[in-house]
Write a structure and sequence with these properties.
The complex is a heterodimer of chains A (69) and B (779). Chain A has 69 residues and is an all-alpha fold. Chain A contains 3 helices and no strands. Classes of the chains: A mainly alpha (69), B alpha+beta (779).
Chain lengths: 69, 779
Amino acid sequence: MADSPTKSNPSSDETLAAAITNAISAANLVNEQKLTRLRDGLAKGTLSASDWKLLAELALPSDKGGQLS
Amino acid sequence: MTMPLQSLTIRGFRGATQSVNIAFDDKPVVMIFGENGTGKSTIVDAIDFVCNEHAGPLEGRQSTPVKDFLPALGSKASELQVELKWLTKTFSATLSGSRANVTGPIPRPKAKILRRSQILDIIDARPADRYEAFKRFVAVPNVEKAENALREAARTAGSDFDIAAQNLSNSQHELTRLYKEAGSPQPDLKTWAKGKNDTDPKDLTAIQSGIDALLSLVKAAADTLAARNRANEQAALDIQAVQSLTIDLQAAEGESEEAKSDLLRLLDSAEEYLTNHEDTAECPVCEQGIDRTELLSRIAVRKASGTKVAEANRKLDSAVKKEEKAQNLLENEENRVLAASVKLAKGFRDSKIAAVLNGGIGWDRFTLFLDDQVPLRTPESIALAEELLAACQGIENALRSERETVSKEIETLRAIQLQYGAVIKNSKQAKQLEALSQRLSALLAIVEKERKRFVDEALDSIRVRVDTLYSKLHPGENIGDIKLQLDPNRRGSLNVSSRFESEKDVPPQAYYSEAHLDTLGICIFIALAERDSLDDTLLILDDVLTSADEAHIQRFIAMIHEESTLPVLITTHYRPWRDKYRYAKGPVANVQLIELLSWSKLKGIRHTKTKLEIDALRDLLAAEPIDRQGVASKTGVLLEAALREVCALYRCKLPFDAEGRHTLGDYLAGLDSKLRSAMKCVSVKQASAGTNGSEVTTTLKQLLEAIESTTLVRNLVGAHFNPHGMNLVDDEVKEFAKTTIVLLDVLVCRSCGELPYKRQGSHFTCGCKSQQLYPLTTL
């Protein structure tokens, strides 16, 4: 008989949420401090459009002054 | 791996009209064999009832309520009970209404049950229904919900950016228009706009305020002069009235002595005195005694004769007072005119407004108003004030024109600064929204990519597993290459495709035989069961093989033992499958064989341990008195089964028989002397902690020859009535059996109980590779 499969079985949502969070972290698109919130929000489906905007805005460089082109 | 299911006790449940208990060994595979109607499904349903709270395949059929079909014949629903021991834990289930009421610790064990009737459902199901079986591995509803929110965020951010970009364009357009209106000053729009934005409008507003102040001074001076002129006119009228009333009084006085105005005033004073002094008895002037009442009466008579003079006198007094008042007002107004003129003169003289500077007012003429003191009120000074006002009013239009120009400049400057500010603000906002939109799009791209990859990998890992299992069952059959794909055009729809001969990506339902579809369904089921199973899961295959040729049974057995990651409970009514184990053609040491006996309402479900043929022979040998025929017959069958397998391995030459019937003599003759000389068995004991590995080698030539010399016993004692058989002593019969048992003990693996059958290197080996049979081929 073959060996037993892995014992801990996270849900598909949790597994994918972790993978997405890693990819976003590697792309440096969200602040490191917000990655846990991102992963939980993905796994639980609780991230709203405004949450996404806030996560993205917080990670944007602050110096974005306007100018006359 | 061991069997976690320790025991199962069933009371009053379906076929269990009597309480039945089945104890399980720790072997990883259990096979329950029983012909139809012996209770196999009852056992599986009982496990389903406890582990999954299902009432079996009849659940959900409205025509058959659970409370009617689940209790055993003659039993009440309240008597129904299933108890299951799983490792050290006990779980018990009773029927509560139409539902299972399970007691026991959490979590409960799980049973993944594949029934015969469900196999084709997996393959034949509509793609949407098939997806239901897979969705727990590939569905990510929460992530999809968050992904939709992200998509909405990216969309609205994009829209916001578009609006901001439009606002920026509008403000830039307006600024450009203002730039062109200003004559497109050098060097460029940007420099011009920034310069304008940095311009403080206070200089212009100061000019504007200065002009307003001058205009106010002019208006104030004009207003005061107008008021003075009105006062002057009124004063002139009042003087004329006094002169006229004076003439009237003189005329009235000329008409009587009593009407002399000074006498009347004296009489008025005397009357007032006497009225106010009632006790007066003498005249206050001549000090002569008087009759006060009489005197008042005489004064009244004398005053009445001078009424006309009195009226004229009163009018004159009133006119004089009014004239005095008019003179005062005129004086005030003229002083105000002079004060306003001083302010006007200083305001205009000190002004730097162009219109004033260009107005050419000669201030030498108006020095009277340029001192700190307000000049004395004289007709000359008033006339000069009038002259000053006229001079200032002469440049009033120029002032208004200049004011209008300055106002327009201020308005334009403010418009430029407003648009410049809007451009800067909209530019900043557009940049921020563009960056946000781009970031959200990048996030969305990652989420979409990762989700797709996750689903593809999940399906692919299932597909790989299915393909591994399937290729184990059907090696070299030009089928397989299973593909599982989500339908890109339909949500929650899963397609299955495969290879058939040279055609790829064809639907297996269209080309595969029913047996091949069966095994495909089983492989998919096992792959799915493994994927979401924890330690506490039992895989149950309920009568899934009804007919299969010998090769496929052999491969199915190999697949179960070598590939399954879960403990397995098999029920079957297919005797060849069971007999494979009984004749050592499967790793029987790893299987617990249970056999169900015939069922009756009185006896219920009964079971017994399935005895291996060799164990049955040993029991016969140990019995006294010896059953000569039984021993000889059993030995013959067992020997035939073993030699048949050996001859098949070496492709020995046997006499042709259309139905494949051969005798012991045929098999022994097939193993020629050359092969016999080369044949040997090696039992390998692997090294383990504290012990060294070892090998035991046994040649087979002598054993086969010894058996060959005793095979006569089979025919004479075990197969036919033969007088010669009576001449054989018991020891000869026993010798035949014992030699056969020795041969089988040498051939069959002591670890897994299986005959070697796999080619490996220079020999055949059993499933666990502890037993080797040499050589690999005939010499």
